[in-house]
Design a protein that fits this description.
By secondary structure, this protein is α/β, with parallel strands linked by helices. The chain is built from 22 helices and 12 strands. The longest helix is centred in the first third of the chain and has 26 residues.
């Protein structure tokens, strides 16, 4: 299309640049707040109105355009990173960013990588538009340094980083560590029960609200009527992603990344939280045969390392399970669909039962992975066509599949003397039902079935750290003061840390804590990359090859 075919006001770069900035401003405001998505349009329109009113990009004489680079480019990039994380995950957790960089992001589901590429392209357009505006309009050029400072000071990512960095000089960096109770089993039942844990990816109990989500959670609600259902299991910082959620519920502690305050914070992890005793360690010491099965790769985020480090004999993920599928193409971008995974879970239960002795099996689903989930073929046959967007379709699918499997295993007598745990690994990140999810208090799924537990509901303010002692006591084990890690058994009636101090206080303490972090990673090398004796000598300025000098390869 030639310039002559465009209206006069669209023939130059001015309004294209201003429109780009207006859309970016509106998108950012909607993403980082709870404003409805439709607010983007009036926000962008308001920006364009002000631009027209004050003639931004078309200043009066006398100053000509200047070839300068805005001071705000780097602050804008940092805001772009924050907006991207908020858009993809809903809640930005800096600890999750650090941990995934440390533990490895290979075998990542590819969908977000495409989105990241598109977001990067959009960010480049924003930077180009802002640079044009500053160069053309001397009024923006004169005040732009103040904008750069405001962008830096107001960036939540930098605020969080500053708070974590301040932990180095905090007066009390051991408050949480003083609350920590090393998990110790004092007494065990004569015949310990088996343990079957289903982690349901992001399938939080909030979905049980029928007014907001209809019957999406109904299969799980029906299953919970036969067991103990805990209401009010909240989410602390550093427990809001898969590895952190599993460590919180199995080790009784938040996952504070290794070396966040040290020089080698981006070195690959060889071990995962070796300094604490977790569920697998306790059961392994009691002779349990332990298995982990997950639909995603065990190499992603250190899952394989965690389970092999903490007593599990068999750790299986996409790498070993996908080649065993009848249909090798029946995979999603992360790994196995849940119906395939649960087929392997059933097979593993049969194997463990045949071997005899107490056993434990942990599985992790993918069906409700944000942003849209991966509903299985079996659900599409039952629920009809999936529109590719509605997370509630995926929630119902995942809830139905796990309920169906539990009932089938029970019917065949494979769950006698077995405690079944059904839990969400963490609260959901941003999904199609996000506005409804954050419209009220949120809680994780946590229910126990079997082992002669009388059905009931327990309403308590707790966190996923309380899962470890609760599961152990439900299995019949006795704990010192009903405590394990930072958790307390929800059967004991003793106050939890959430009840005593509240989520805000605990999250604030987490940002200051250093002693618990050191406990988690005790034994992991977090020294500077060059010990004092190994620091390379400075290069000599003498000619290459001269006596007493070193030449770079």
């Amino acid at each position: 299309m030639s310039d002559l075919a465009l209206p006069p006001w669209l023939r130059g770069p001015r309004w294209w640049a201003l429109l780009t900035l207006g859309l970016a401003l509106g998108f950012s405001a909607v993403t980082v707040t709870r404003l409805p998505d439709m607010t983007l349009v009036p926000l962008a329109a308001g920006w364009l109105f002000l631009a027209r009113r004050w003639r931004w990009g078309a200043p009066p004489p006398p100053e000509p355009p200047a070839r300068v680079w805005p001071w705000s480019l780097v602050p804008l990039i940092l805001w772009g990173i924050y907006v991207f994380l908020a858009d993809r995950f809903g809640i930005v957790d800096l600890g999750a960013v650090f941990f995934h960089l440390q533990a490895g992001i290979s075998e990542h589901g590819g969908g977000r990588l495409v989105v990241a590429a598109l977001f990067t392209l959009a960010m480049l357009l924003v930077l180009a538009a802002f640079t044009w505006l500053v160069r053309v309009d001397f009024r923006w050029r004169r005040r732009e340094r103040l904008l750069a400072v405001a962008l830096l000071v107001g960036n939540p990512l930098l605020i969080d980083l500053g708070q974590r960095g301040a932990a180095i000089v905090t007066e009390d960096g051991a408050w949480l560590d003083r609350q920590y109770v090393a998990p110790v089993i004092r007494e065990a039942p004569p015949t310990p029960p088996n343990l079957l844990i289903f982690y349901l990816e992001s399938l939080e109990r909030t979905y049980a609200n029928r007014e907001r989500f209809g019957d999406a959670y109904a299969p799980l609600a029906a299953l919970g009527e036969r067991g103990v259902v805990f209401e009010g299991v909240r989410q602390l910082d550093n427990t809001g992603w898969t590895m952190a959620g599993m460590i919180a519920s199995q080790c009784g502690t938040p996952l504070m990344p290794a070396g966040l305050l040290h020089d080698r914070q981006f070195e690959p992890l060889e071990r995962v939280v070796p300094g604490v005793t977790c569920l697998g360690d306790l059961l392994d010491a009691r002779g349990y045969a332990l298995s982990y099965l997950g639909g995603a790769s065990t190499r992603f985020a250190g899952k394989g390392r965690f389970y092999t480090d903490h007593g599990f004999d068999r750790v299986r993920g996409r790498e070993t399970l996908a080649p065993r599928l009848d249909d090798p193409d029946y995979l999603n971008s992360w790994g196995l669909f849940d119906d395939s995974l649960y087929g392997f879970v059933e097979e593993e239960v049969r194997r463990l039962e045949a071997e005899g002795g107490p056993w434990g099996l942990v599985s992790l689903s993918l069906g409700t992975h944000p942003p849209n989930g991966f509903p299985a073929r079996a659900c599409r046959e039952r629920q009809g066509e999936f529109d590719g967007v509605d997370i509630l379709y995926s929630v119902e699918c995942s809830a139905w599949l796990v309920s169906r499997l539990v009932r089938r295993l029970e019917a065949e007598g494979l769950l006698e003397d077995t405690l079944v745990v059904i839990a969400s690994d963490h609260l959901s990140m941003r999904v199609s039902a996000w506005d409804r999810l954050i419209a009220g208090p949120r809680a994780n799924t946590f229910m126990l079935i079997g082992n002669d537990l009388p059905p009931r509901r327990i309403r308590v303010e707790a966190s996923t750290m309380d899962v470890l002692p609760t599961v152990l006591e439900a299995m019949g084990f006795s704990l010192d003061r009903h405590r394990a890690g930072l958790g307390v058994s929800l059967f004991a009636g003793a106050p939890t840390l959430v009840e005593e101090h509240g989520l805000e206080t605990l999250n604030a303490r987490l940002k200051e804590e250093t002693a618990l972090q050191e406990r988690l990673w005790q034994g992991v090398d977090i020294r500077p990359p060059f010990p004092p004796a190994e620091i390379p000598p400075p290069r000599s300025t003498a000619a290459p090859g001269a006596p007493g000098t070193a030449s770079a390869d």
